């Protein structure tokens, strides 16, 4: 097995390309977008994923591009600050954990691979035969020893090889939307948010960012919509946030002009197997933990490292499943618990959360309270002992 195709050039795809190439495989990456995707939202790298980044020689570069977020502030409906606390605590970060913009991380990974890996942009796979022949929308059919699906939670590769997404998706009962908006709040490495029962709005601006990102989350029954109809998705968001105070009406007006609008359910992907024949899945395509877990990027980085390492070591796809599954299960377990703290289900729970945030710096048991927030994330982020596949 020497010639490998990767479908998708986001974090999971570019990281897998790096490790496969480092182990001596010939690698081709096909990506639907015309170039590596820029921008995106901020992501965390923790625990075992930090070790992967270090083994790639990227740790200093990643830290140099840290978001440098300082504080997070809750506001009431009239715009009055209710509680302010440390941004790392808000993000569940401890120790050496680092936060970086998704586009910055992917650019670093792409730069590591662009000279040694073949990239086919503005193309996508349409079929994978049992003999490894892959057909594309634009390129001529080609044969590969293995096809790696690294094309996200709505993976085309998974649908082709394993079946429809509905078999594997678990809807957690929430929706999320993110886009770029003007920084009218004049935020400087800050997060500003407002929460009501069942709905949360968050705006943040990171280091050297002249704009801001608006993030909305809300609880909802499953919504029927066209994934290609952005205008329709923006209308669904507007309806969901109707009547919410603070700066939300202003933010929704800005959303109408956003060019990078993202909208999706907060869902996970659960599969009994991540490989079938000549196809294997990595990252969100195989084991999406949902944005609520805060561990999607770390799962992609660790998954890429383990997949390439096990293929090179000779244990192959069986070794990949064996080594990675406990880590995936530990991190997927974070999603359902975390999302309930991000979108509050009752007035009493919302009052209590804001009161605790306000009092936390003065509480005698502060360290224990902080550990209740950060401890489960830290334990899941370190729930794997990484093998040394390369010297």
From TrEMBL:
Residues 2-313 form the FAD-binding domain. Signal peptide: none annotated. The keyword Transmembrane helix does not apply. Keywords: Monooxygenase, Oxidoreductase. The keyword Amino-acid biosynthesis does not apply. PANTHER family: MONOOXYGENASE (PTHR46865:SF2), OXIDOREDUCTASE-RELATED (PTHR46865). This is FAD-dependent monooxygenase. It comes from Nonomuraea insulae.
